[in-house]
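haha ok so turns out i had the wrong file open the whole time. this is the CORRECT one, sorry everyone. sequence first:
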Amino acid sequence: MQLTFKRFSALLLGLMVTSAKLHAQDPMTVAPDIFRIRLENERVRVLEQVLSPGLKEPMHTHPATVKYLLSPFKGTVSHRIGTSTVRTVKSGRIIWHETETHAEKNIGKTDIHSIIVELKG
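then structure:
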């Protein structure tokens, strides 16, 4: 069977969607020792995150979120596409994130402690 451009494109798109679903893990599933559910209802899920120095979270996905940093953040944020950035954020900051798949590693000397409000719907 000859592989036409349309069939190839459809196959490639299917693989990308399947790959995204495999890597788009819920933080509570992949890192229950780092995240705790503090509140959940039909509109939001509120997570508490505590990431000790030197530890790294597995790759996971959050929907659109508001993150409140209870402590300073110094970490490496790795993205599904293979890029990574080092972020340093002061405690008390409130940060907006669109839907994101990432892994974080604490490269600081203190726990990263934050409250994450995930929006539903």
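Confidence is low (pLDDT under 50) at residues 11-23.
again sry for the mixup
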